[in-house]
Specification:
Number of helices of chain A: 10
Radius of gyration of chain A: 21 Å
CATH architecture of the largest domain in chain A: 4-Layer Sandwich
Distance between the termini of chain A: 13 Å
Largest sheet of chain A: 7 strands, mixed
CATH class of the largest domain in chain A: Alpha Beta
Strand content of chain A: 25-35%
Largest interface: A-B, 35 and 35 residues
Strand order of the largest sheet of chain A: 6-5-4-3-2-1-18
Number of domains of chain A: 2
Oligomer: homodimer
């Protein structure tokens, strides 16, 4: 059962960094574990400057192997080793991930202090991590790339009235949530006894690099948060689409079709310095009101 | 003939970065060309935040293949390619440089837009680049590592009085400096005719990672600027020496033995946050007065 889900933008630039924006990486803290989506160069330092702990990263999901999305992997791994990490690190990505990660691990002199598990995901595969799943959707980009959908599982909603009816403490409810039931004063109380409906799981969609993708919109129906790339403004979208990227306007169209609650734009081309970012936000907002252009270190507590 | 030599600290941390300090890299601008010594993760972004141009980097000298000193290479190369660089990039380093660089170049999907020249240097080798030389001194570190000495060549000093005697303009003097002589009104005027002694070349010593090295002190006799690693303060120097590092106190001893003009300390362990850096500076200054602990983006115009 996950209590806190926090989304942290670690790098919001695309292609190369700018003084304001680091290379692509998004951190998602799920209680005590931390997941990264993409790990551009400099991510370890961005982690150190954020509220997340670089040592608590458990899983890294790479969208694809263009340098800006994964060249921070070697540095983070070597720093973890210098800090004597023992816990396993899991790395997921599209086909070729094993070769790319192995190549990276062969760079420089060091002795790994912890095990690394690498897994190549197939298109549309859903990975089940207990309290949540992550699904990989094929993105529209010149190299094999994924969009990822993180979805907390739906669970039975606990009714405060029913809790009181059975005189249950919060601790006892936690046990029921975990084990399915509790034996209290000789009586078995089940999860069904104290729930009055379904608590919908929270969800985060991360587009990675992609031109507008209707399949992603379908797969993201009614999700909570969509983080979509918006490399350029609409005046440059034809060219951007050719290279497998989207404009802010197109990202907003996808969010609207998907009917998500919030849209965060990222992967902003370094051509858009602080004063020009408003252009992207405005054109997206005219289509999808609840849009924000992400900034490095922006944090979102994902609410139920 | 070099006019301006500017030293820029691009990253002054050691082992891993801190919020204040990036990974090791030093930029030296020699008029229009820019040389890097080491290229830790994040160097391309540090370059973009400095007064140097990442596209004007012509040569990179890597001291050794511990991750903190070279993991920014792939990102810079791929960004140069995305910006359609055509000029050759030269990469120098200790034995194994060709294998390490080749491995790095095989990471990710991209097509290199420019030629890369890689050269492994031998201990004590001097590379001659016309107006300046770079010498590699074996450092005292667990893996094959270099200290580098950049030395502008000595040249004949132009006398203002002799310039006036021959009624020469600055432009004419430039031609003499370049070609050795000029034909003015049917008379040949040579460099010897207008010089009254030797103008000593400027010099920069970069220790890279090393425990105290008397050979480096000898090789650096009377040099202008020494940039020396100072991973820890003297209370931790025994342990630091075991790992091939120096304390601030020991760096100052080397600078004193070498009789350099200025000492800049770098490769500061991330344990020394802003408030504790003064400790390093004070212990070095008590031995070698002209010491400064370098900060990221600090710039020094190297005077004749």
């Amino acid at each position: 059962m996950i209590s806190t889900i926090k989304l942290v933008f670690l790098g919001t630039s695309g292609s190369w960094p700018s003084p304001e924006r680091g290379m692509p990486s998004i951190g998602v803290q799920l209680d005590s574990e931390c997941i990264l989506f993409d790990i551009g160069e400099g991510t370890q330092r961005q982690l150190m400057m954020s509220s997340l702990s670089f040592m608590k990263v458990t899983k890294i999901f790479i969208t694809h192997f263009h340098g800006d999305h994964f060249l921070g992997l070697g540095g983070l791994i070597q720093t973890m080793t210098l800090n004597d990490r023992k816990e396993k690190l899991e790395i997921y990505g599209p086909p070729d991930t094993i070769r790319q990660v192995s190549t990276f691990l062969n760079l420089g002199y060091y002795s790994l202090s912890f095990p690394i598990f690498v897994r190549e995901i197939e298109d549309n595969e859903i990975l089940d991590f207990g309290d949540y799943t992550i699904k990989a959707i094929r993105a529209k980009h010149p190299v094999h790339s994924f969009s990822y959908i993180l979805k907390e599982k739906d669970r039975k909603r606990i009714s405060r009235e029913l809790m009181e009816k059975y005189s249950l403490t919060s601790k006892e409810v936690d046990i029921i949530s975990k084990n399915g039931s509790i034996n209290k004063n000789g009586k078995l109380i089940t999860l069904d006894d104290i729930s009055d409906g379904i608590r919908k799981g929270r969800s985060i969609v991360y587009s990675g690099d992609t031109s507008p993708n209707d399949i992603l919109a379908e797969e993201s129906r009614n999700m909570k948060i969509m983080v979509h790339e918006a490399t350029v403004d609409s005046s440059l979208e034809t060219k951007a689409n050719e290279y497998g990227h989207s404009s802010a306007r197109q990202a907003a169209e996808i969010a609207k079709k998907a009917n998500v609650e919030y849209l965060y734009l990222t992967h902003i081309s370094p051509r858009y310095r602080a004063d020009k970012v408003k252009l992207l936000e405005n054109e997206a907002k005219s289509i999808f009101e609840k849009t924000v252009v992400a900034r490095d270190f922006m944090e979102i507590m994902v609410q139920v």
